[in-house]
Design goal:
There is one protein chain. This protein is of the alpha+beta class. It has one domain. The protein contains 13 helices and 15 strands. The strands form four sheets. It has a nine-stranded mixed sheet with strand order 1-13-14-15-12-11-2-3-4, sandwiched between helices. A two-stranded antiparallel ribbon has the order 5-6. A two-stranded antiparallel sheet has the order 7-8. A hairpin with an 8-residue loop joins strand 2 and strand 3. It is globular and about 65 Å long. The chain binds zinc ion (ZN). The site of zinc ion has 6 residues, from loops.
């Protein structure tokens, strides 16, 4: 076996890859038969044409993160940037523009109204105010960030308040270590809302956001990109819940079926803040119960994956059935992989614990759009019955036909296997320093106007 990828031509690595030890390890490694050759195949279901109206608006939430070297006089000083953009897409306008294809990108952009919130966070060797270390500066700035991020001009609630609502759902049986453990503090604690202090004699400040434990991955002397991506995924997901809570306060949940929410990446929270996933699930289920009562439909929330094992697996399936994968996955077919399917075909495991139990608040689906694009997405567990990977039955997820019809509409050849608003959000997120985030306000105005 040769060493694949970009290092193929790098000879020292090739030598390692060819070595007996590496070859021996590969021989001992479990081998999955080529997809479809012996193992099971997915059994996708065909979706009937949608009989209800599609949502009129799409809100896409998408972040990016980066790190830059700065000069503070201390070596290796870095600052992290995280931006989370929300894009509002008016689908009626998309329809009108679609009538005279090819779409003019400038006019297409006019259908999106992007708002970007940029934030800078201390990285290694950057100490702000009187904090004792870069790590503590980071903790303080993260707290301020959620407190200062004003999302809506006529709703002055902050992302921090939304976070603290989620914090109430954090399990209390496990205490966490004091954030000053690096400085010798031995206390363990349950982190509460707002500011508090450690019960040791130094009584140093504890921020509610310390409950995210992101600071535990902070590196004083090297890059913190991994930590920044935890900040980004948390921020994106808190933003989703925040927008829904704003809807609730404005009495707009009865119109929630007119809006679809797209989030970048799976509906999950990974790493140190993974507990947030279960908290988000609780809050989404509470909100969805109201939406279901008022509209008869479920919330439409979709996570879209652009890479990873599931995307790879879906692509691998193209080689099945003599290369004519439309035989297996025809247009407008959808498959919900079960726990068993995932563990035997995609991410090997013989654990009894459900795949993604601690990290996911939704489940994955494979969808082949009407133009045969492949989409790997996830939809949330909006009630107890949906919260299972036991079956591939689509009917439990009443929003799925609308989700797929939306994907037909939004996934175009221009953005193969991706979702255009998500792409647009990326483009805007890449421009920092554009302050303001008024998506919700505009959406509320549009929904109200719609009433007449
Ligand atoms: Zn302490």
């Amino acid at each position: 076996m040769s060493y694949e990828g970009e290092f193929a031509s790098y000879r020292p690595l090739q030598r390692i890859a060819d070595s007996n030890q590496v070859q021996g390890l590969l021989k001992r490694a479990k081998r999955l038969p080529v997809v479809g050759s012996t193992g099971r195949l997915p059994e996708p279901s065909h979706l009937e044409p949608l009989t209800v109206d599609l949502p009129e608006f799409v809100v896409a939430i998408d972040g990016s993160s980066a790190e830059i070297d700065v000069s503070t006089g201390y070596p290796g000083s870095r600052i992290g940037y995280v931006t989370v953009a929300s894009v509002l897409l008016n689908l009626r306008l998309v329809d009108i523009l679609d009538e005279d294809r090819p779409v003019d990108p400038v006019r297409f952009r006019a259908t999106e109204e992007a708002d970007t919130i940029p934030a800078a966070l201390p990285g290694s060797n950057v100490v702000t105010r009187d904090y004792p270390s870069a790590r503590d500066s980071f903790r303080a700035e993260l707290y301020d960030l959620l407190q200062d991020a004003e999302v809506d001009e006529d709703d002055d609630s902050t992302l921090l308040e939304t976070f603290e609502i989620l914090l109430r759902h954090k399990p209390t049986e496990r205490l966490q270590r004091c954030p000053y453990e690096y400085d010798g503090c031995q206390e363990t604690m349950l982190v509460g809302p707002g500011l508090s202090d450690c019960s040791c004699s130094k009584r140093r400040v504890i921020f509610s956001t310390d409950a995210l434990r992101i600071h535990e991955g902070f590196r004083e002397d090297s890059s913190n990109l991994e930590m920044l991506s935890e900040v980004m995924q948390v921020w994106e997901r808190i933003m989703l819940v925040h927008l829904l809570l704003c809807f609730e306060r404005k009495g707009l949940l009865s119109k929630a079926n007119k809006v679809a929410f797209f989030v970048d990446g799976p509906l999950a929270v990974f790493g140190h803040p993974a507990w947030l996933s279960a908290a988000i699930k609780v809050e989404l289920q509470r909100l969805n119960a109201i939406v279901r009562r008022e509209t008869g439909a479920d919330l439409i929330i979709v996570g879209i994956e652009k890479s990873g094992s599931f995307v790879q697996h879906f692509e691998d399936l193209a080689g099945v059935k003599g290369g004519d994968d439309a035989l297996l996955f025809g247009e407008r077919t959808c498959f919900l992989p079960t726990d068993d399917y995932i563990k035997s075909r995609i991410i090997y495991s013989n654990s009894d614990k459900r795949y993604g139990e601690a990290t996911y608040f939704g489940r994955k689906f494979f969808y082949r759009t009407d133009n045969l694009s492949r989409v790997v997405g996830s939809i949330p567990f909006l009630d107890e019955e949906q919260d299972s990977l036991d079956s591939s039955d689509l009917s439990r997820y009443r929003q799925l036909p609308a989700v797929c019809a939306l994907l037909d509409k939004l996934v175009s050849s221009r953005f193969a296997n991706s979702v255009s608003p998500i792409i647009a959000a990326h483009a805007h997120a890449a421009i920092p320093f554009t302050l303001g985030a008024k998506v919700l306000h505009r959406l509320a105005v549009a929904l109200m106007r719609d009433e007449k």
